[in-house]
Amino acid sequence: MNGSILNFRFDGLSEREIFDKPYRADQIFKFIYENCIFDFNDMTNIPLNLRKSLSENFRILSVVESARRTSSDGVIKFLFELDDKNCVESVYLKDKNNRVTFCISSQCGCRMGCAFCKTGDMGLIRNLRADEILSQVLYLYKIMKGDASVVDKYFNIVFMGMGEPLDNLTNVETAISKLIDKKNLGISQTRITVSTCGIADKIEDLLKKFPNITLAVSLNSPEQSEREKMMPVSKKYPLNLLFQELKRLYGVYKNRITLEYVLIKGVNMRRQDVDLLSQIDKDIFHINLIPINVGGDDPRRPSEPEIKSFMDKLTAAGLKVTRRYRRGADINADCGQLFYEKFVEGVV
């Protein structure tokens, strides 16, 4: 299998002997990153013999669309097949103002085993390479460019798909470096969010390279014993040490940190949870409430009045709180529901 041309740096690519002229790399990267041309044969201002040579030595994308499903609310979920026939899912979302976000996977499966996340049921199959991460973004970008309803030529990227990004940090960092490179897509760091379950000793490695990205940390309980039940990673990175590190990093990078909080009825919406959350530093953290996404009438999902009551209590305590509304529920595209075997089997 030919390697992806996405793995090469712009300057490194221009020096390869395969090119007859130094500016060819500029032409090729413009075709790929600006025009979303993913077949060398369609690069019409490149000489035929060079197109042939490129096709023989490289491929562009490292994922192939295997299936897609469109939700009643417009969300599109893609199933991408990888070289080894494993698959990952990515999600294309538009908000009510027709601005676009790409939800990208960083691993095939996940080994973190969070109780509220279907991806963890797969276990970790393998890390995604940087070119596989980039390929998802470019594919969705092409979808966006063909979407006449989009009002903003820019888009947001959230690493909230399958996998724990900090468990595949090298490849995620390589992909982000290429995404923000002005010779590639030139995305602002502020449009990229990396979500982590709280691998405390790797967060600064990410922020040193990308100090302006948005960091989102899955909290889900302010109580250590309850968090351990939901998130096994909390045994290795207990809450007191995690918060200590997050506060230290805020002091260095000055970027407010989002705490993701999956609402589970009878588990983490109690009065004692409100009291503990009210002790969080209000200048550093922003809480994003996510009612647990489940199929059917699962009793763990709180009712709308219960969600509002909990949110009102947090707001009254002076916390900055938002609520994430469910999107793509009818195709299992919402947060925590990516699980590709069910997609393949057609079981929703």
Structure description:
This protein is α/β, with parallel strands linked by helices. The protein folds into 2 domains: 3-59, DNA polymerase, domain 1 (Orthogonal Bundle); 64-345, Aldolase class I (TIM Barrel, Alpha-Beta Barrel), CATH 3.20.20.70. 33% of the residues lie in helices and 20% in strands. It contains 12 helices and 14 strands.
Give the CA-based shape.
elongated
Give the class-level CATH name of the largest domain: Alpha Beta
CATH architecture group name of the largest domain:
Alpha-Beta Barrel
Instruction: Decide which structural class fits the backbone.
Output: alpha/beta
Mean pLDDT: 92
CATH structural fold name of the largest domain: TIM Barrel
Radius of gyration: 21 Å
Strand order of the largest sheet: 3-4-5-6-9-10-11-12-13-14
Report the CATH superfamily of the largest domain: Aldolase class I
Sequence of secondary-structure elements: EHHHEEEEEEEHEHEHEHHHEHEHEH
Poorly predicted ranges: 342-348
- Span from first to last CA? 33 Å
Query: Biggest sheet: strands, sense, closure?
Result: 10 strands, mixed
What's the domain count?
2
Counted by DSSP, the helix tally is 12
Could you give the count of β-strands? Answer: 14
**What percent strand?**
15-25%
